[in-house]
Structures are given as C-alpha cells and as structure tokens.
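As agreed, record passed on underneath.
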Amino acid sequence: MSDSDRLLLEAGRLLPVMEIFYSIQGEGYHTGKAASFLRIGGCDVGCHWCDAKESWNAALHPLTPLESVLEQLCTFPSRSVVITGGEPLTVNLGPLCSRLKKQGMKIYLETSGACPVSGQFDWICLSPKRNARPRPDLALMADELKVIVYEEEDFGWAVENALMVKEKCLLYLQPEWSRYRQMLPLIVEFVKEHPGWMVSLQSHKFMNIP
C-alpha cells in the first residue's frame, strides 16, 4: 500500500470493500426487511466458525473510493444500509456515514464491538466474540445484542454480555449455522426459561439468498 493510499484509508476516503449487494436482512430485529449491504474487508477477531473468513485479510479486497461506494449503495430501492464485515470498525466509517445520512439513508452496523466506534448509526447490532471482548462504551450504545451459540458455554457468555448493555437493548440468541440443529433446541429451552431473550435465525440461508 502506498503512503497516499494509507492516508486516504485512515481518512475514510478509501475503503477495503469485499462486496456490495442488495438483499433481505436475515437476522435479528430487522429480519425480513430489504437493505443494501456493504461488507468491509478486515477482521482480527478470527472466530473458527466464521462464515465469511474470506473477509479477514483486508489486503485481499480492493481499496475503493468513497464516491464509488456511495454511488453503488444509492442505486438500490431501499434507503437502508447494513455495514458489516469482517469487522467494519477496523476502518474509519465517519465520512461514509456522514455522506449516507445526507442521502437520507438509515445506517445499521453489525459489529463485534472490539474496536472504537467511528461514524453515526441508526441501529447498532452488537455480536460479541469470546476471543475479542467488546468495549464497554460500545456495548452501552448497542440497540441489539446478538450472541452466536456454537456450544453450551455460549449461554454463559450471552448472560455476561447482557449485563453490559443498556436496559432497552434487545437480546437475541442465534445458533451458529453449521450446528443449528444441535443448538436450536437448547436455545428454545433457554428462551422459555429466560423470556427477556429472543431467538434469531439466519433466515436468509433458509431462503438461499445472500
């Protein structure tokens, strides 16, 4: 990476874009709603069950000018944008969010919470990972806590993180896709016993859409 590109990246004028696409939100509170998706390359959390491991190495994804990203996102009918990754907060999202808001877009962030916040969002979905604990300041900003359940120990992790979020934050448990048949019955029983929680499913995978 050249020095000039590095400066533009730090300023949020270039972004390591893995993909931009239009689909239906398949998880959490906004399930079923149309949205454009911006997947940012780069993540050092390294969950072994991650279904987007190709996003981890930011260097594999082209540094895309902010103007090009905006142009693509604004061509879709929905005025909602989901920024995901990788871990999108590894880059400066401030300029992107500012320009999107000027276009009247609603901005939803999907994050592990391990990095400082840059940008302004209408909704923050915190999906914390045990190998990179979320920042307490970001946890308090979350509108939705979505804990991925891969094994039974993740229920304790979920309860631990629920103590970090604000009272009005929505609480979701979501089975890891490759183990949903094993973990979903346990999640159902947990939610029945702890009705402050709700079940989230990766419905887009059942619909066979991105």
About this structure: DSSP finds seven helices and nine strands in the chain. The chain has one domain: 3-206. Strands lie at 14-24, 34-40, 63-65, 80-84, 106-111, 123-126, 144-149, 170-175, 197-199. The helical segments are 3-10, 66-73, 94-102, 136-139, 153-162, 180-193, 203-206.
